[in-house]
Amino acid sequence: MALKIFNVLGREKQEFTPLNPGFVNMYVCGPTTYDWSHLGHAKNYVNFDVIVRYLRFSGYNVLYVQNITDVGHLLETDEDRVIKAARKLQVKPMQVVEEYTRYYFEDMDALGVTRPDISPRASAHIPEQIKMIQTLIAKGHAYEVNGSVYFDVTSAADYGKLSNRKLEKQEAGTREVVRDDKRNPEDFALWKKAEPEHILRWDSPWSEGFPGWHIECSAMAKKYLGDTFDIHGGGIDNLFPHNESEVVQSECANDAPFARYWMLGGSLTVDGVKMSKSLRNFVRARDALEKYRPQVIRMFAMSAHYASPVDYSDAGMQAAQAGWERLYGAVRLTRSMLGAAPASDDSNSFRDRLAAARAQFIEVMDDDFNMPKAVAVLQELTRDVNTLLNSGQAVGRPVLEAIESTYTDLGGTVLGIIPAGEAVTSGDSAREAGLIQLLIEMRTAARKAKNFSESDRIRDELAKLGVVLEDRADGTIWRAT
Questions:
Q1: I need a surface site. Which of 17, 262, 367, 432 has the fewest CB within 10 A?
Q2: What are the tens digits of pLDDT across the range 307-325?
Q3: Which CATH architecture has domain 4-301?
């Protein structure tokens, strides 16, 4: 089965064919670094991290670009978000940017999110933005008024094709603050003349000022990926006006298609309302990391399809934790048994089960990166792994290594939820695992004999030693705390 992606441009699932065989150029809208990263960011960037990981796992050479917005992202009041934060904190705007950019990368690193190959900043690409604006003016798609420059949306016949919005149905004020100097209320800023108190400002042919928000992504995508590239990702909340503006200004400036596949992630919500900084209903990523392992947060982020919303709750996080513990419990048990495993055994038929799980995993990931189903494939495999490992039969080292490799490849390399770890080979670890398994068997015998006091005693004594037992329909498994 070939990889298929739901392309927002066209609203249909399409077979993925990169511009250049074997190579994928991908751009994802990055954060505006004026405040803390929250779980809404984590959901989106974990999802795109898995997408990039899977493309590389599938053999593609991926060039991944994710911008940092440090200027030009305006509020409805026409005020720059970074400058507003700087005024509140009584520091320089670039102090705000430096601090929160650093925090953003620290949080993403902690979550196991692979860093982009290139993380360009808007403020470092002012010449490229000015050049693109000049091109748009020369081609009749933009105009200057009193030192500011606006894109004329009526100059592009297909404006609105990404968001399916018709120009004649839009109303004044739906994009940004309506200004008297614009020809049309829907026109958007490419360059803004800076007011005297505006700190972030650069020289341009039109005025001392600063770029609009949308032009940065068009200019930086062109610089690093070319006029046309394969995949553009981001959050669904930026579909309009940001992504729509990117498309129209890029294609008008470059006379070429912009991104060929558009992938937009669903929002993280709290009681059905989008988690956001402006609403102050967010949970900081680093606060969540104090309560939950990064792999658990990644599991939660993958609990719904990347394009669907996810509602945050403690119950949802706890469910993700329980699911992850089941997976990792099987991995830990597999690794602990490797040290004393015989060279061969009669369980080689389990290799067929592993091959089937791998094929099923690839099938669901090839279907528009269906992460919840990919996790479900591993959960189903875990049930069978636990049955095998708790059956009492000797399981040979080759099979254990194949089990460990399957989890490492699919759960680790692709999904990022299985921590890397060497197979345990020390005699002490093997003896520990064997002794725990012996106690589990003694407890099982006590339960069958209805000697529940003895059964409970074994469970409680193991708990004191940091070993938690979990009774399941397919047997009892253990995990260290």
A1: 17
A2: 999 999 999 999 999 999 9
A3: 3-Layer(aba) Sandwich (3.40)
